Amino acid sequence: MMKLNEIFQRELSRISLSDIEEREILSHTKFMVESLEKNLIKKKINAEVFVGGSLAKKTLIKKKIQDVDVFIRFDKSEDIEKLSSCFSEINGKLEKVHGSRDYFRLKFKEIIFEIVPVLKVSKPENAENITDLSYFHVSYVTKEIRKNPKLKEDIKLAKSFCYAQNCYGAESYIRGFSGYSLELLVIHYGGFLKFLKSVAQIKDKVVIDPSKFYKNKNDVLESMNESKLDSPIIFVDPTFKQRNALAALSYLTFYEFRDACQKFLKNPNLKYFEEKEVEEDKLIKYAKKRKLEFLKLIIKTDRQEGDIAGTKLYKFYNFLLGEIGGYFKIVKKEFVYNHKQVAIVYLILKSEKEILRKGPPIANPINLAKFKKKYPHAYIKDHKAFAKIKIDFTGKKFIDILKKKYRMVIREMGIVKLDI
Asked: What is the pLDDT of residues 260-306, one digit of tens each?
């Protein structure tokens, strides 16, 4: 068994950029920043450009396609609308991304630059949008890393671990850890290993307030907006007391992550840093061996690529699970989103043969009559109606029925394709 330090060193050598790779990214980023600055001057727009995200904090890890966050701080919110005019002299594939505030995605030299307009504010409480806090986030994290340079490597390990556990990202279809929230957690606990050990022991809701904005846990729960408190860890943003940096983290994602932390600590292994791809052949063999039904569904939306499309697809996926789960036992399920407009869903189903549908009480004669009309063989037990329904159709057939029955609902959910 490899020792922890050996595992960490091997993983760091795998995910860390070489000096040449880092210089190349910095060079292309410098060109992008200078081009934007020239265009701002030419258009007589009073704004400043700064690099944010992992590159600015020196916590960037290797990825198939690197992305770099570039922020443009505008003095006036009305000037933000002029951002689209600042790309005239930059050659690259430009895409406008709609969100709480529109921004631009520009592919240049095999790097995805996300160019985000923000309002220049002197105090976080004056922010009009969450992205306006980015400048403060970069300042806080870089300051903490300067105090303890080892944190830079620990943050890289945390990001790699979360990527492998499919819980990296605050997007609605992931509801996991954002890069900034991971940085805060590693900083707070004083390292990657301490972070894993602490998470592995969490049983109840945790409140973390590193800047001590509040008197105690109850003060946080009473003072912060209720909509920001529905997460297993409440981390008061050290740059802004009204923000929970982990508001996007769902209980399901957290429990899966905590389970991975416990397993890793019990049996440390490099496999916990390896991104898992769905192995279709293994799923098919699993289903055949147990005489279960295997389904592969392709779902497509017409909504904007990225978070919006992913959210729509994941919402429809949950709708599907709810409908299918009423007639079949879902033995295994996998949701794979390609970050564009398509998701693939893998399901292994076991037929229930017969299910029991519970109806209204006899005290509700109108609904009782409707239930009996729908299920003629319904019966009364303990003053309630019940009906036994035979399942004499496959999951594939059920999907076909579903497509016809909910055709308009599916379209309203932004789904334009559902194929088996």
From this structure: 999 999 999 999 999 888 889 999 999 999 999 999 999 999 888 87
Provide the residue type at 34 as one letter.
Answer: E
What global pTM score does this model have?
0.84
Determine the Cα–Cα distance for residues 415 and 410; give it in Å rounded to an integer.
Answer: 6
Q: How many residues does this entry show for the chain?
A: 420
Alpha-carbon gap, residue 341 to 398, rounded angstroms: 24
Tokens 């009204």 correspond to: 242
As beta bridge partners, residue 108 has 111
Residues with Cβ within 8 Å of 216's Cβ and at least 6 positions away in sequence, in order, are: none
Q: How confident is the model at residue 308 (pLDDT cuts 50, 70, 90)?
A: confident
CA-CA distances (angstroms) from residue 407 to 60, 162, 295, 412? 44, 37, 20, 9
Host domain of residue 199: 148-276
Reduce the DSSP state of residue 85 to 3 states and report it: helix
Q: How far apart are CA 330 and CA 292, in angstroms?
A: 10
Pick the last residue of a domain from 261, 276, 291.
276
Phi-psi region of 408 (alpha: psi -120 to 50; beta: other; left: phi over 0): alpha
Q: What is the C-alpha separation between 15 and 377, in angstroms, rounded?
A: 62
Token pair of 63 as six digits = 């990825």
Domain containing residue 337: CATH number: 3.30.70
In a domain, 374, yes or no: no
